[in-house]
Amino acid sequence: MNETMYKNRKYNSIKNTILICIATVFFIIGPILMANWQIETSKQKTSAISLVKNIHLRDGDHALKILAFHGFDMALIRRGRMAVPEIYFANLPRELLRLKDVKIKKKLFFSALLPAILKVNQTIRQSRKKLKSIIFKITIGEDVSEADYYWLTQKLIRYKVKVGDVRHFVTHTGNILGQLLNRMNIIPPELALAQAAQESGWGTSRFAQQGNALYGEWTWGTGCGIVPSKREKGKKHRIKCFKTIIRAVDSYVLNLNTHKGYREFRQKRSLYRDDQVIDVMRLVDTLTNYSEEGAAYVTKIKNIIRVNRLNDFKKSRLEPSQS
Fold it and tell me: How many contiguous H segments (helices) and E segments (strands) does the chain have?
């Protein structure tokens, strides 16, 4: 019995030592690495989103012809017979303002957004895979590289996972990393397309056309923002704008993954494994906080998904990289 107790105390001592080392990296080495990272990224942006080559559309450009030239066939994509080509428009086509045929307008709108949505999700899937690997290493007591610690610190900051002092991290390691895994997850393409359609007036709103403001996000900061023409007196918010469509999508996804108003959304999504197809309608039910319309907004999003058969895109994937 004494020998067993000794072994347990020895094991717990080793485990606590490992956790303290990890915490030291987060709270001492981590900030230093983050500072260095910020300096380096100010010189050269290397994220998957930043490296995307965007096509800047000018007034008069025919976006549908550009898509066709690159082999983009929406009919085949809907039937699951074709992967989505990596064609990224920096801005929404001006054609959306002129097209009278609703069917063609919707086809162009979905074609302009789908690659960006899939790219953001692809990046998140890769990050989830890496995070799970790091969690496994920590769980079994394997060494975790400095690069992985640095990456993990970066993700905790990005996904706004609060970490207190060293003692808090040591005693709540599983909960902290579990919360990060819960937040670092994809948004179903059919939902991202439907909300963009609703919030941007199918890409025709002033905010969408002038600033890629596809999801009606508000901002009070000093960054890019467009003042609403009918903003109530005394209000200071602006509609957040972006340099490219994919940055707008990335911001929207991060918003759903971090804002406290969408906690239930994340909880329901966590019930699905990474290899499962998500029942998007169950998630839509949780989005009453996204709009002042509440339940009526949820109904609108569900109708957009049904009427436009957006479930066709739930298994869509980008073409494999040629590099």
Answer: 15, 5
